[in-house]
Every structure is written in C-alpha cells, then in structure tokens.
Write a structure and sequence with these properties.
Helix content is 15%, strand content 31%. With 309 residues, it is an alpha+beta fold. The mean pLDDT is 96.
C-alpha cells in the first residue's frame, strides 16, 4: 500500500496514476494535525488496514491534479546513519556504527524547495537514501527481531551544509537546517518491498544521473542499524531511520536545480533548490575528483564566500 497526504493534508491511497481519499476512515484516531494522525495510524495499522483497503476501492482523482505533501510531516525522530556504505567495495572495512539526528522541521515534500542558507559552507549536498519508517515501539531490539518493527519505507534526502566553522562543530549545524530533509512522495508499506537489502537507488540533478547504487552495498544492515539505534533510545511509530548513502556520486546543489530521487518501488521524489545568493560550484562528483586524485569537495566558483571571489 502507498499512503500519501495531498492538498490540505487529506490522507489517500495511491493506485497507479490516481489517489483515493481515505480520510474519513481514520478521523477517529486521536490527533491534532497530520503529523500525529499518520503516526497514530501506523501504531494502529492492523486495526485500520481493512477499512482503508475497502475505502480505497472507490473512485480516485488524478495524481497530476493534486498537491502531494510530505507523508510524515512531523516525525518524532529522524535518525540518520553515517558512513553506512562500502562505496562499491572500495572501503577496506566498514566504518564504525554511527548516526546523528535531524530536526523534524527539516522535512519538506514533493515539489517543495530546499533553501540554501547564508552560511560559509564549502559546499551544499544532498544524499540519496532509502529510509525506514518504524511501525511499533522499539527499545533494545535484537537484530533477529528488528525487521518486525518496520512499517514501511520512503525516499529520503539528507541535506548537508559542509565545512562550516569551527572545525569539529559538525552535525547539528550541517544537517538540521530547515528544508534539509525532503521525503516522499509516498509512504510504502513494507510488504511491497521484497528485499530492502537489494534495492536500486538513483538521483538526478537537472536530468543528469549523479548517484546510482544499491542497498546491497550497506556496511551495516537495516536490522543491525535498528538494533544499535534502539539500544541508545526508543524508536516510536512514525519515526524515520535513514540508512545512509553511497557518497561517490555526491555533487553540489545550486540555485535553480531540480533534483529527483527514485528508490525502486517507492516512487520518484522531485524537489527544487533555491539560493538567494546565487552561489556556484563545479559540477564534479566525489568520484570524479577521486579519479583525478583530488581531495575534498569541489571548489566554490562564484558568489559570497568563494575564496577566489
């Protein structure tokens, strides 16, 4: 099942090129807004699935005629795994398990805009990721049972403002900025993804393929990530656990860019980039630079904070 919010955050089920409004059957779930409505539904999904399936048999409207909203407008937790890919086998060994939080206010949805702030970042990037959505409370869950705690999956972008001073003061100011977590277009229940450890992920910038990798390159499996994160703090229904990225295709995001992310089975997430400062970078990927024996991100070419400006 593909769940989505649309227009004024009506809940719908996506079927092909149409969406069916099922808001009426979930209105009795206690909620104050769409954020706790979807988390409440996830926590009670076994009781509501049949009602939603019945309601979704009705007539729908064309997806092209509605505004799709973020499927999880305000998750309680957004946990992102750090350096969780083997970079196509180029790493000698897996990096130690590590993660960080992003603020829920970073969430935006399809066709929304990631805004690059006026800060002296060396580069702005967005990492293509498949994210897990938690289905039931997870506290110190062993890997052997971790997959039972998954509700579904979403496309996820981990936006980054890299290289901000002072050195070592990294993740919070790099990752948690408003609009730095595009998600969607749909929340796909786990039964639709046969093997989440073997799923292709692609990201395009202005139609040019930049990231192209598979979740089978993960250093630490989804089950191991849930085990580790839930040993540190409890995960609740509707929480997001982003599983990391293969960094080799990362490239600069700039004003006017149109970015598209597609994880097989999860739909295509499209969003825009805006930078009031109109800064520019070279279009090199990290792999391009590695092949030239160059280190670090590509340089800023023009605009505020460019060293040669």
């Amino acid at each position: 099942m593909k769940l989505a919010f649309f227009d004024d955050f009506k809940l719908g089920v996506v079927k092909g090129d149409s969406i069916v409004d099922v808001s009426a059957v979930v209105q009795d779930i206690p909620h104050t807004g769409p954020g706790d409505l979807i988390s409440g539904l996830i926590a009670r999904f076994d009781a509501y699935r049949g009602k939603i399936e019945a309601a979704s048999a009705g007539a729908g409207v064309a997806l092209s005629g509605v505004r799709i909203r973020p499927p999880l407008p305000k998750p309680g937790n957004i946990v992102c795994m750090a350096v969780n890919y083997m970079e196509n086998g180029t790493l000698a060994k897996p990096a130690p398990l590590n993660a960080f939080h992003k603020a829920p206010t970073a969430i935006i949805g399809p066709n929304d805009t990631m805004v690059l702030p006026d800060v002296p970042a060396t580069i702005f990037e967005g990492e293509a990721e498949m994210a897990v959505v938690i289905g039931k409370r997870a506290t110190s869950v062993p890997a052997s049972r971790a997959m039972d705690h998954i509700f579904g999956y979403i496309n996820f972008i981990d936006g980054s403002a890299r290289g901000l001073p002072p050195p070592g003061n990294v993740f919070f100011q790099m990752k948690s900025r408003d609009t730095f977590a595009p998600i969607g277009p749909y929340l796909v229940t786990k039964d639709e993804i046969a093997d989440p450890q073997k799923v292709p992920i692609k990201l395009w910038v202005n139609g040019e393929l930049k990231q192209d990798f598979n979740t089978d390159d993960m250093a630490h499996s989804i089950a191991r990530c849930i085990e580790w994160v839930s040993s540190i703090h409890t995960l609740e229904p509707g929480d997001i656990l982003a599983t990391g990225t293969n960094h080799r295709g990362l490239s600069s995001f700039m004003d006017g860019d149109v970015v598209e992310l597609e994880t097989q089975g999860l739909g295509k997430l499209r969003f825009n980039i805006r930078d009031e400062l109109k800064r520019t970078w070279l279009r090199e990927t990290r792999l391009d630079r590695q092949q030239k024996s160059l280190e670090g991100p590509t340089r800023q070419v023009s605009g505020k904070y460019a060293k040669d400006a």
